[in-house]
Request: fold
Amino acid sequence: MNLKNKMTKNITTYNGEIVAGSLMIPESRKVSELLLQEVSKDEWNQAIITDNILQKRSPATAKRQANLIRKRLSLMTADLWYLVKDGSAETATQAVLAAAIKHSRLVGDFMDRVCRDHWQTYNPKLNKTDWRAYLESCVQIEPIIANWSESTTEKLRQVVFRILAESAFIDNSRSLELQSVQIMPEVAKYLKQNNEDYVLRCMEITE
Reply:
Protein backbone atom coordinates (compact mmCIF):
# COMPACT_ATOMS: atom_id res chain seq x y z
CA MET A 1 0.00 0.00 0.00
CA ASN A 2 1.47 3.36 -0.98
CA LEU A 3 1.80 6.42 1.27
CA LYS A 4 -1.36 8.11 0.04
CA ASN A 5 -3.48 4.99 0.54
CA LYS A 6 -2.07 4.48 4.04
CA MET A 7 -3.02 8.01 4.92
CA THR A 8 -6.47 8.13 3.35
CA LYS A 9 -7.82 4.70 4.26
CA ASN A 10 -10.89 5.03 6.49
CA ILE A 11 -10.50 8.82 6.70
CA THR A 12 -13.54 10.89 5.81
CA THR A 13 -12.74 14.41 7.02
CA TYR A 14 -8.97 14.74 6.74
CA ASN A 15 -6.69 13.05 4.25
CA GLY A 16 -3.08 13.32 3.20
CA GLU A 17 -3.42 13.54 -0.56
CA ILE A 18 -1.72 16.93 -0.48
CA VAL A 19 1.64 15.20 -0.06
CA ALA A 20 1.62 14.99 -3.87
CA GLY A 21 2.24 18.72 -4.15
CA SER A 22 1.45 22.23 -3.01
CA LEU A 23 -0.44 24.73 -5.20
CA MET A 24 1.51 24.06 -8.43
CA ILE A 25 0.20 27.13 -10.24
CA PRO A 26 1.83 26.64 -13.68
CA GLU A 27 0.70 23.02 -13.69
CA SER A 28 -2.80 24.01 -12.55
CA ARG A 29 -3.12 26.44 -15.45
CA LYS A 30 -2.38 23.62 -17.89
CA VAL A 31 -4.74 21.18 -16.20
CA SER A 32 -7.47 23.85 -16.19
CA GLU A 33 -7.09 24.16 -19.94
CA LEU A 34 -7.50 20.41 -20.35
CA LEU A 35 -10.62 20.45 -18.19
CA LEU A 36 -12.10 23.32 -20.18
CA GLN A 37 -11.41 21.40 -23.39
CA GLU A 38 -13.25 18.39 -21.92
CA VAL A 39 -10.53 16.03 -23.12
CA SER A 40 -11.10 12.30 -23.23
CA LYS A 41 -9.20 9.85 -21.06
CA ASP A 42 -6.86 9.05 -23.94
CA GLU A 43 -6.29 12.74 -24.66
CA TRP A 44 -5.59 13.33 -20.97
CA ASN A 45 -2.99 10.56 -20.88
CA GLN A 46 -1.47 11.83 -24.12
CA ALA A 47 -1.06 15.31 -22.68
CA ILE A 48 0.12 14.32 -19.20
CA ILE A 49 2.18 11.20 -19.87
CA THR A 50 3.28 11.25 -23.50
CA ASP A 51 3.57 14.99 -24.16
CA ASN A 52 4.58 15.69 -20.53
CA ILE A 53 2.98 19.14 -20.56
CA LEU A 54 3.66 19.49 -16.83
CA GLN A 55 7.37 18.96 -17.55
CA LYS A 56 7.99 16.38 -14.85
CA ARG A 57 10.99 14.08 -14.63
CA SER A 58 8.96 10.88 -14.52
CA PRO A 59 5.54 9.76 -15.80
CA ALA A 60 4.63 8.67 -12.26
CA THR A 61 5.20 12.16 -10.85
CA ALA A 62 3.33 13.77 -13.73
CA LYS A 63 0.37 11.46 -13.26
CA ARG A 64 0.27 11.86 -9.47
CA GLN A 65 0.40 15.65 -9.55
CA ALA A 66 -2.00 15.98 -12.47
CA ASN A 67 -4.53 13.77 -10.71
CA LEU A 68 -4.26 15.82 -7.50
CA ILE A 69 -4.80 19.05 -9.42
CA ARG A 70 -7.74 17.57 -11.31
CA LYS A 71 -9.34 16.38 -8.06
CA ARG A 72 -9.06 19.89 -6.64
CA LEU A 73 -10.34 21.74 -9.67
CA SER A 74 -13.13 19.27 -10.36
CA LEU A 75 -14.74 20.31 -7.07
CA MET A 76 -15.27 23.76 -8.60
CA THR A 77 -17.03 24.89 -11.77
CA ALA A 78 -15.63 26.00 -15.10
CA ASP A 79 -15.83 29.64 -14.03
CA LEU A 80 -13.03 29.02 -11.54
CA TRP A 81 -11.03 27.07 -14.11
CA TYR A 82 -11.01 30.19 -16.28
CA LEU A 83 -9.66 32.20 -13.34
CA VAL A 84 -6.86 29.66 -12.98
CA LYS A 85 -6.12 29.46 -16.69
CA ASP A 86 -6.34 33.14 -17.65
CA GLY A 87 -6.14 35.10 -14.40
CA SER A 88 -3.24 37.15 -13.13
CA ALA A 89 -0.65 35.41 -10.98
CA GLU A 90 -2.44 36.52 -7.80
CA THR A 91 -5.90 35.61 -9.09
CA ALA A 92 -4.80 32.19 -10.32
CA THR A 93 -3.01 31.48 -7.05
CA GLN A 94 -6.04 32.35 -4.94
CA ALA A 95 -8.34 30.37 -7.23
CA VAL A 96 -6.15 27.30 -6.88
CA LEU A 97 -5.94 27.87 -3.12
CA ALA A 98 -9.74 27.94 -2.96
CA ALA A 99 -9.91 24.59 -4.75
CA ALA A 100 -7.17 23.17 -2.50
CA ILE A 101 -9.08 24.24 0.62
CA LYS A 102 -12.27 22.62 -0.61
CA HIS A 103 -10.36 19.45 -1.45
CA SER A 104 -8.45 19.31 1.84
CA ARG A 105 -9.94 20.23 5.20
CA LEU A 106 -6.44 19.66 6.54
CA VAL A 107 -5.46 22.90 4.79
CA GLY A 108 -8.71 24.76 5.36
CA ASP A 109 -9.10 24.05 9.05
CA PHE A 110 -5.47 24.95 9.74
CA MET A 111 -6.09 28.36 8.19
CA ASP A 112 -9.48 28.84 9.79
CA ARG A 113 -8.49 27.76 13.26
CA VAL A 114 -4.75 28.16 13.74
CA CYS A 115 -3.88 31.07 11.47
CA ARG A 116 -7.02 32.97 12.46
CA ASP A 117 -6.24 32.50 16.15
CA HIS A 118 -2.77 33.94 15.61
CA TRP A 119 -4.24 37.04 14.00
CA GLN A 120 -6.87 37.49 16.68
CA THR A 121 -4.28 37.18 19.46
CA TYR A 122 -1.75 39.47 17.73
CA ASN A 123 0.79 36.66 17.42
CA PRO A 124 1.74 36.90 13.74
CA LYS A 125 4.14 33.99 13.53
CA LEU A 126 3.51 30.27 13.13
CA ASN A 127 5.76 27.53 14.46
CA LYS A 128 6.08 23.76 14.35
CA THR A 129 4.34 23.47 17.71
CA ASP A 130 1.22 24.93 16.13
CA TRP A 131 1.20 22.11 13.59
CA ARG A 132 1.65 19.38 16.20
CA ALA A 133 -1.12 20.82 18.38
CA TYR A 134 -3.37 21.14 15.34
CA LEU A 135 -2.90 17.50 14.34
CA GLU A 136 -3.60 16.43 17.92
CA SER A 137 -6.93 18.25 17.68
CA CYS A 138 -7.63 16.55 14.34
CA VAL A 139 -7.18 13.17 16.01
CA GLN A 140 -10.33 13.91 18.01
CA ILE A 141 -12.22 13.89 14.70
CA GLU A 142 -10.22 11.22 12.86
CA PRO A 143 -8.49 8.92 15.41
CA ILE A 144 -6.56 7.11 12.67
CA ILE A 145 -4.42 10.23 12.23
CA ALA A 146 -2.65 9.18 15.42
CA ASN A 147 -1.14 6.32 13.40
CA TRP A 148 0.53 8.63 10.88
CA SER A 149 4.32 8.41 11.07
CA GLU A 150 6.52 11.32 12.08
CA SER A 151 7.84 11.55 8.54
CA THR A 152 4.32 11.72 7.16
CA THR A 153 3.19 14.48 9.52
CA GLU A 154 6.38 16.43 8.80
CA LYS A 155 5.84 16.12 5.04
CA LEU A 156 2.27 17.35 5.45
CA ARG A 157 3.48 20.29 7.53
CA GLN A 158 5.97 21.23 4.85
CA VAL A 159 3.32 21.12 2.13
CA VAL A 160 0.76 23.12 4.12
CA PHE A 161 3.30 25.78 5.06
CA ARG A 162 4.46 25.92 1.44
CA ILE A 163 0.85 26.45 0.33
CA LEU A 164 0.57 29.34 2.80
CA ALA A 165 3.81 30.83 1.49
CA GLU A 166 2.81 30.45 -2.17
CA SER A 167 -0.48 32.20 -1.49
CA ALA A 168 1.30 34.95 0.54
CA PHE A 169 -0.41 34.17 3.85
CA ILE A 170 3.10 33.79 5.28
CA ASP A 171 6.22 35.50 3.96
CA ASN A 172 8.08 32.22 3.50
CA SER A 173 8.14 28.69 4.85
CA ARG A 174 11.13 29.39 7.13
CA SER A 175 10.29 32.55 9.04
CA LEU A 176 6.53 31.71 9.04
CA GLU A 177 5.54 35.34 9.56
CA LEU A 178 1.85 35.80 8.79
CA GLN A 179 0.93 38.42 6.21
CA SER A 180 -2.31 40.24 5.49
CA VAL A 181 -3.99 39.07 2.29
CA GLN A 182 -6.79 40.77 0.39
CA ILE A 183 -8.94 38.35 -1.57
CA MET A 184 -9.03 39.21 -5.26
CA PRO A 185 -12.50 40.56 -6.22
CA GLU A 186 -13.08 37.96 -8.94
CA VAL A 187 -12.18 35.11 -6.60
CA ALA A 188 -14.38 36.45 -3.79
CA LYS A 189 -17.23 36.95 -6.27
CA TYR A 190 -16.95 33.37 -7.49
CA LEU A 191 -16.94 31.94 -3.97
CA LYS A 192 -19.96 34.02 -2.92
CA GLN A 193 -21.97 33.20 -6.03
CA ASN A 194 -21.28 29.49 -5.60
CA ASN A 195 -22.02 29.42 -1.87
CA GLU A 196 -18.48 28.41 -0.97
CA ASP A 197 -18.85 29.91 2.50
CA TYR A 198 -16.35 27.63 4.22
CA VAL A 199 -13.65 28.27 1.61
CA LEU A 200 -14.21 32.02 1.72
CA ARG A 201 -14.08 32.06 5.53
CA CYS A 202 -10.75 30.22 5.48
CA MET A 203 -9.32 32.75 3.03
CA GLU A 204 -10.59 35.80 4.90
CA ILE A 205 -8.61 35.13 8.07
CA THR A 206 -6.70 38.43 7.86
CA GLU A 207 -9.59 40.68 6.87
Q: What stands out?
A: The CA atoms of residues 7 and 46 lie 29 Å apart. The chain has one domain: 21-203. Confidence is low (pLDDT under 50) at residues 1-11.
